[in-house]
Each structure stands twice: as structure tokens, then as C-alpha cells.
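Milestone M4 deliverable, item 7.
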Amino acid sequence: MPQKIHVPSTKCDRFQHPYLEVYKVDAEGIRTPLLFTTRERGYTWHATGGDVESRLLVVPSPVSDQGTDLPLLSIGLFVIGGIVVVVGIFFARSMGSGAPIVVAVLIEGPLVIGAVFALIYNVGMVTIGGGLQPPDRVEAEEIFKPLHSNVYRAFDFVEEEDIYLALSRSVEGDFLDDLYRTIFRSLVMQEEGGAVARITDVRPIEIEVGEVGVVDGGEAGERPAFNVRCRWQVEGVVSHWGHAHTRVNEYLADWSVALAPDGWRLTGSEILEQDRIEDSSTDPLDDLEMDEDTEL
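Output delivered:
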């Protein structure tokens, strides 16, 4: 019969077995599977006091091009002053008198002074270009890695609302619900009576950045976006009735990423391949056949 041992801000469920002891520790909203064997006899839990944000990897911020500032007012005043001088010289030669030049200089003086002041105090400056820029391929890969990892980190949480909150930091819009259902369904191990596997490791194998550019952001206008083809492995473990099952699956998928108001977000994916790499159990008496349709 499982025993529940309560300590401050944690809950520990214990399952005894002749060959090992398996625990599931709920602490600060996170559920952690623990497997104690003759080689791994202890585990020390430390309170972090962290929130959802602190448990997620940091995603690089979008790069913004400052653009080029042009002093249009100053340029305009200098040009007008130059035209005035040219006209003065033309009339001075036509009339055979220096008076037009004097008048031109008197007009040009305030124009030049105004242009200098406008230049010094940044009056009449116009910015050309600038704004948020699409990342290059190296930057795109560095953006995708933590987004992809954080999707799986979200399922470390126990409460559904915490999972959704964590997912919302990496996934945008309608895709959030779809991805939640897809991953949660993959973690349910039917051969273990519907027990939910906990993800212990996510390993990127290959990441290939595809097209980088912009997409239509509706009322917000165009926004930077890119596509990634990624191959990765997911390792999960479920502790159930005194033993633990470990499963490793490998996936290949195309992902789309775009810049949202709160930062980079995954906006869609298409699974191209999925393969079972490994199945194992810590129970030597376990002869259950693994369900090939259950994926992580």
C-alpha cells in the first residue's frame, strides 16, 4: 500500500518493490520521478522559490535595427541657402552690381544658422529603415532550441493551468491547445493503466533552419518568422506499482516560428517521422508487451 510522506511544500509517494524503490515527489508545482537502487540510494530536494518563468530557458530577444537618421530640415535649409547664393551671383553678373550678392548673403546667414541649430538639437530628423529584423540562420537556431525545450519543460508541472501558462511562453494562439493535447496524449501509457509518463530528457539530434523572412501579422503588420526542421529524442519514465518503465522515442518534424508581441513563439508543426528507440522496465517480472502506438 503506497504511503504518503508529507514534508513542508512537498509530497512524496513511495512504492516498494523487492528490487528497488520508486518515488514521485511533488514540490513547488513540479512532479519529479525518483528511482532508488543499490547504486543511487539518496536524493536531496532544495526549495527554489521560483515561479513558472524561472523554470524555463531564456529565449533570445528579437533584434531591432535602429535605422538611419537623416537631418532633413538641416539639409533643406542648407540647400535653400545655397540656391539663394547662386541666384544672387547670377543677378549680380546680369546687373553688373554686387548688391544681389549682399542680399543673398543676408538671406543665407539665418538659413545656415537655423540649419546648424537643427542639426545640433536633432530638429527635423527623419529615421529611414529600421524596425524588427528577421534573424540569420545561426540566430534562428539559438531561438528555436529553448522554445522547443520549454515545450517539454511545461509538462514537468502538476497542475494543468501551470502547464498551460508555461506553454504560453513558447507557443502561440490556437496551436497551444493542439500541442497540449498532442503531447499529453503521447505521455499516457495505456499498458500501465493510463499512467502518465514524466519526461526526463529531451535531446536535439539535428536542427536545420529553413526559410527566414516575414509573415503577415494581421493588424500588427508583417512580422519576422522562420521555419526549422528538427530531429530529436524524448526520454520518459513512468513509476507504477513498484517499478518504472523507460521509453525513448525519436521524432522528425517541421516547425514554424514567428515573432509575437511578447517574443518568439512556435506557431505550428508537422510530424514527418516518429520511431520507438528504446523500451525498458526495472521490474524483472514485467513481461507486458509495449504498446507501439504510444509516443512521447
